[in-house]
Write a structure and sequence with these properties.
By secondary structure, this protein is mainly beta. The protein has one helix at about 1-20; strands at about 30-40, 45-55, 60-75, 75-90, 100-115, 120-135, 135-150, 160-170, 180-190, 195-205, 210-220. The longest helix is centred in the first third of the chain and has 20 residues, at about 1-20.
């Protein structure tokens, strides 16, 4: 186990070093904490914080806090959730080094269903968002397909190293229906069945441009 942990930490160090050297490029970085606390056999509490930067760290692009209460329609699966998110954004004004600051309040409903095919864990997430922006209101639909594949073990358990792949499509209900597409690939390590860490690269495909983001994520599924 010790050698596996050292190897994973070394890979993480290489990732952070490469990311740090890319600060002057168009590559950004997202730090994320995602928690899902089990209340009982049916109910769960989702909690999440994302700190997004235009560079490795310090040049804030967006701060997001998301939470919600979920309910399993079947045992440990088919979860429906009602949630709220606060998003503070600091995008650059086109062609300048100046930023504008915006705040968004968001209500969302989502449904997650999971499947298992051999070693491959598959998750489908359907999310419907009502977005309250400054002087504007928008509605958006999102669909995410995610796969986790353990590499050194047969299942996602303690000391497992795994590959993570996902694709998420965003669709607006008004004009310019296509909003964006996020394609992600990464590698993770399970410290135990409750905590895992993951690092990867996400390509965000917008209608007129694209952007690459490095991601470092911590997942916490500790029960209450």
């Amino acid at each position: 186990m010790k050698n596996k942990v050292i190897s994973f930490c070394f890979l993480m160090l290489l990732f952070v070093t490469a990311n740090s050297n890319a600060q002057k490029s168009d590559v950004g970085n997202w730090f994320a904490y995602l928690g899902n606390q089990k209340i009982n056999d049916r109910w769960n509490w989702h909690n999440e914080v994302q700190y997004r930067n235009f560079n490795f760290a310090g040049d804030l692009e967006q701060l997001m806090v998301r939470t919600g209460l979920g309910y399993n329609l079947s045992e440990n699966n088919n979860n429906v959730l009602l949630g709220y998110a606060y998003i503070h954004s600091e995008p650059y004004i086109a062609g300048t080094d100046e930023k504008i600051r915006t705040d968004e309040h968001r209500i969302f409903q989502q449904f997650i269903t999971k499947q298992q095919f051999g070693r491959v864990s598959i998750s489908h997430r359907y999310r419907f968002e009502q977005r309250f922006l400054q002087d504007n209101f928008k509605i958006r639909f999102r669909y995410s397909l995610a796969l986790n594949i353990p590499i050194n073990k047969k299942v996602m358990e303690k000391n497992a190293v795994y590959a993570s792949l996902s694709n998420e499509v965003f669709i607006n209900t008004k004009q310019n229906h296509y909003d964006r597409d996020r394609v992600y690939g990464g590698i993770g390590y399970c410290f135990n069945k409750y905590v895992k860490v993951e690092a990867g690269v996400m390509s965000q495909l917008l209608p007129a441009t694209s952007r690459t983001q490095f991601q470092i994520m911590i997942f916490n599924n500790l029960p209450f």
